[in-house]
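My current task is to audit a protein record that another person submitted. My question to you is simply how this chain folds and whether the tokens agree. This is what I was given:
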Amino acid sequence: MPEGFALRIGPVSVALFGEFDPSRWTLDAGHHKFFSPTNLAQTALHVEWGPTVGQSGHLAFEAGRVARFYRDGRQWSIRLGEDEHSRAADRVLSLDASGTTGSVLMNSGSAAGPAARYPLEYPLEDLLFRHLMAHHGALLVHACGVSWRGRGYLFVGSSGAGKSTTARLWRAAGAPVLNAARV
């Protein structure tokens, strides 16, 4: 088993430590662009498996059964896959107030072979990086960027909104595409 795994997006790098096997994770090809050395990470998360029953802190935000955010003076947490009727969350991310250390507790009863499951699978990775980037004065947007006649254009939208199509059309017109998931 590896000693750790890390991803960097802009000024934020997050490292995972624990018993897991990244060679068995089904990460999309885009993740490989963001691999980073674990010793450079600002945030270290220890991955654990066990029961995910019980919340701590005060409910700060709720996104239905997708995620519930809790805060107290010492930490904040995101509980995935639960609502007021759930007994246990699928995964729980807890992070200290400084954003430097925390844990990902994975419900061992929710999947066979938990060591093969990517701890930050959707939507946790997105939620974590958006939170940490905000604390570093950065912003994560789902967009494509284009340079045209000395100006930059950013096309922002959710999945399926047409950003990749827009990027292809701009590229066909001779504009450099600064970033796009699939062009």
Q: What stands out?
A: DSSP finds two helices and eleven strands in the chain. Residues 127 and 171 are 31 Å apart (CA to CA). The mean pLDDT is 86. The first strand starts at residue 5 and ends at 9.
